[in-house]
């Protein structure tokens, strides 16, 4: 257990036995949060970052992807406006302008993350750091010591090995494209693949989505999967239960062969087939840190590795790969190491969203998980065309689903497929973490006419 947990409630008094009390490897969400909190508690803190401040989320993840998703929605909005009396005329899209504006915003956020560290007195090393012992870190040509080491290096895109796989790009490279090709293939069926396929299609590109499963978004509720798979089939060329067997590059573009024998040509192929913890060449062989089969660092409930002085948080531990989770984990580690006794982090009822078109948001259990856990439960489900599309003419469907434990009447699963689903789900997640019951939903007056009122008007169980 950490030596100073709860022993100094008024703050931690730094000791001089080491160069630093805490050395953090990785200046993403979890690492920066841990550094800031530890420094505010009186610890001497250093952080090393070899790429960019803010990590995956700020630079090649949720922030730029959400900006691209906003951009892709405008095409639908222009088309939908005709049903409401607008005449928009010819429209065009300028990728270079979107990319430039996105880059400016990311640079601004980079500076904010760096300022957080500077303003809290955290020493910054803009270089690669490796573990060189239980209390030793190698940074460039320096050997530094720390009472504790926190690894928060995140993950990195992973592409399966097949002939021509070197011609695929990852989500990292998509954000840096100088031009957006006319035809794009996306391989994968998870968050990243579905989001980017929606973005490319929304930006008017000929998009093919290839996934080895029979339905998209494995791990999500089956009703959600059914609806999103159907909606994506309206927007993209969907190749399910298939996978890439070979890519051949020609001057005219890429020739893609699938396991089924189907072949087609495209200008770009995005491999959105997963991310792996970035633990290679980190020096972990010098200490007792253990990895799982996927390369993730094994930690206990306090995020402590088998090496007592070394901790890890965020995507590198492969628990819940979400930015707010990494922030919470980093903060918890800093507080427990340097003078406080924080409440532990619950991984129950963590809300999440997929920014495809329409959006998906979920909190709590899927119906399959409820069945596996042996609950006696009710399902309240509504699928419908939103009011907006009665005039837009778009056939897009929405879904709202609540799963209720019969014994307690508590809502144990909530799922939405709709525009701005993430915005809707945040409030539902607060209610679920407060133990909301279906009766309390029923006794709440809805806001009419809104999509969200479906949450409080569903009365008949499926």
Note down, in words, how this protein is organized.
The protein is of the alpha/beta class and 462 residues long. Helices cover 30% and strands 24% of the residues. The protein folds into 3 domains: 1-156 and 274-347, FAD/NAD(P)-binding domain (3-Layer(bba) Sandwich); 165-272, FAD/NAD(P)-binding domain; 352-456, Enolase-like, domain 1. The protein has helices at 29-40, 55-60, 62-81, 95-119, 171-174, 191-202, 222-235, 323-337, 367-372, 388-392, 421-433, 438-442, and strands spanning 20-25, 45-48, 123-125, 129-133, 136-139, 142-151, 155-157, 183-187, 206-211, 237-240, 244-250, 253-258, 263-266, 268-271, 275-277, 310-312, 352-354, 359-364, 377-384, 398-405, 411-418. Strands 1, 2, 3, 4, 5, 6 and 16 form a 7-stranded mixed sheet that branches. The chain starts with 19 loop residues before the first strand and ends in a 20-residue tail after the last helix.
Which segments are poorly predicted (pLDDT under 50) over 5 or more consecutive residues? 1-10
CATH-derived topology of the largest domain:
FAD/NAD(P)-binding domain
CATH superfamily label of the largest domain: FAD/NAD(P)-binding domain
The secondary-structure class comes to alpha/beta
Number of domains: 3
Overall pLDDT score: 94
């Amino acid at each position: 257990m950490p030596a100073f947990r709860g022993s100094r409630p008024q703050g931690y008094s730094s000791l001089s036995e080491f160069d630093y009390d805490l050395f953090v490897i990785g200046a993403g969400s979890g690492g920066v949060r841990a550094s800031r909190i530890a420094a505010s508690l009186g610890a001497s803190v250093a952080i090393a970052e070899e790429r960019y401040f803010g990590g995956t989320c700020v630079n090649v993840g949720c922030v730029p992807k959400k900006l691209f998703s906003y951009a892709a929605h405008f095409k639908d909005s222009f088309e939908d406006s005709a049903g409401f009396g607008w005449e928009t005329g010819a429209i065009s899209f300028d990728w270079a302008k979107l990319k430039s504006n996105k880059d400016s915003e990311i640079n601004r956020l980079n500076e904010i993350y760096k300022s957080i560290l500077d303003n809290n007195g955290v020493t910054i090393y803009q270089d690669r750091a490796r573990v060189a012992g239980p209390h030793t870190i190698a940074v460039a040509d320096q050997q530094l010591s720390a009472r504790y080491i926190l690894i928060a290096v995140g993950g990195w895109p992973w592409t399966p090995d097949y002939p021509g796989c070197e011609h695929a790009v990852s989500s990292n490279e998509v954000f840096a494209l100088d031009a957006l090709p006319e035809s794009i293939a996306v391989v994968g069926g998870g968050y990243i693949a579905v989001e980017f396929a929606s973005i490319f299609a929304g930006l008017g590109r000929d998009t093919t989505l290839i996934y080895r499963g029979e339905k998209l978004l494995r791990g999500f509720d089956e009703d959600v999967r059914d609806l999103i798979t159907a909606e994506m089939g309206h927007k993209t060329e969907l190749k399910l239960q298939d996978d890439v067997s070979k890519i051949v590059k020609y001057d005219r573009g890429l020739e893609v062969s699938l396991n089924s024998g189907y072949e087609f040509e495209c200008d770009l192929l995005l491999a959105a087939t997963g991310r792996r913890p970035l633990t290679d060449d980190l020096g972990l062989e010098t200490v007792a840190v253990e990895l799982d089969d996927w390369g993730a660092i094994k930690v206990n409930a306090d995020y402590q590795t088998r090496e007592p002085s070394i901790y890890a948080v965020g995507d590198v531990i492969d628990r819940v790969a979400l930015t707010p989770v990494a922030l919470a984990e980093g903060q918890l580690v800093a507080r427990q190491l340097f003078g406080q006794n924080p409440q532990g982090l619950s991984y129950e009822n963590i809300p999440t969203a997929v920014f495809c078109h329409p959006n998906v948001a979920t909190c709590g259990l899927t119906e399959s998980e409820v069945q596996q856990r042996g609950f006696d439960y009710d399902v309240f489900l509504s699928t419908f065309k939103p009011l907006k599309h009665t005039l837009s003419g778009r056939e897009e469907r929405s879904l709202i689903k609540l799963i209720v434990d019969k014994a307690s009447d508590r809502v144990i699963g909530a799922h939405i497929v709709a525009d701005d689903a993430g915005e809707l789900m945040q409030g539902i997640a607060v209610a679920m973490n407060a133990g909301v019951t279906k009766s309390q939903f029923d006794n709440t007056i809805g806001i009419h006419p809104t999509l969200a009122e479906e949450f409080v008007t569903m009365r008949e169980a499926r």
